[in-house]
Design a protein that fits this description.
7-stranded parallel sheet, 234 residues, 7 helices
Length: 234
């Protein structure tokens, strides 16, 4: 695992932007895994800037988002689908048919997850996966206790995660209790991974770096990946 330390959130986002721009330049058909939450917002703003400046072309890029709240429709203003559209997709030239996000209101939950895994395989696998990290060490919504072999599935969110994410909702009780998430095995199959962590994640990052692989700290599984970079704000 490689660690890049940056002295500000702006520099962290800039480094991540450089990696994505370079990856799409080298492979215009890149399959890009995306995260939501606060941390990648700086990266998304820079990607929009890079696109407007002619430095990146998303016309052949395919994306797969890590997760989606269960029970929220695409057009719900709290859904990750809505978040991605507002903060990135509506401002770049990505084709609608190349965007993949789990359907939070899928009737057949198992089939929705199995279909997502099939779609990732059909696209040739994820080339570059962007990750954030939860205060409890979750990656995507793989909460503590998630298994190395876990695949895309419905998961019950921990109270800590619901509390942390309550800032995006009017009331905490509105935060969904379940979410669809890619699994640890799904994430580790990405060819390259970059995890972004601002200074508010200092505590958990130092725990991840110190610990051996431990399912109670799901991000520690990333130590098994040969091409994983942590970009952290010091
Ligand atoms: C979101 C996701 C989550 C977040 C994590 C950190 O798609 O996968 O694992 O990355 O909860 O969220 P922020 O960046 O808001 O602190």
């Amino acid at each position: 695992m490689q660690i890049i330390k940056t002295s500000s959130y702006r520099k962290l986002s800039k480094k991540a932007n450089e990696i994505v721009v370079d990856a799409v330049f080298k492979n215009p058909n890149l399959v890009l895994g995306l995260a939501t939450g606060s941390t990648p917002l700086g990266l998304y703003q820079l990607l929009i800037k890079s696109f407007k400046g002619g430095k990146i072309d998303f016309s052949k890029v395919k994306t797969f988002n890590l997760d989606e709240y269960y029970g929220l429709k695409k057009n719900d203003s709290q859904s990750y689908s809505y978040f991605m559209d507002k903060n990135l997709f509506s401002k770049i030239n990505i084709k609608k048919e190349n965007i993949h996000i789990l359907n939070g209101v899928a009737k057949n939950k198992k089939e929705e997850c199995a279909k997502y895994e099939r779609e990732i395989k059909k696209a040739g696998g994820i080339d570059l996966q962007i990750l954030g990290i939860g205060a409890d060490g979750h990656i995507a919504f793989n909460e503590p206790g998630s298994l190395l072999k876990s695949r895309t599935r419905l998961i019950k969110l921990k109270e800590q995660t619901r509390k942390d994410n309550a800032r995006f909702f009017e009331l905490k009780k509105e935060v969904p209790k379940f979410a669809f998430t890619m699994g640890i095995a799904t994430i580790l199959e990405a060819k390259k991974i970059i995890l972004l962590a601002g200074k508010n994640k200092k505590e958990i990052i130092s725990q991840v770096l110190k610990t051996k692989i431990n399912p109670q700290i799901p991000a520690s599984f990333l130590k098994l990946h040969p091409r994983c970079i942590f970009i952290v704000e010091e």
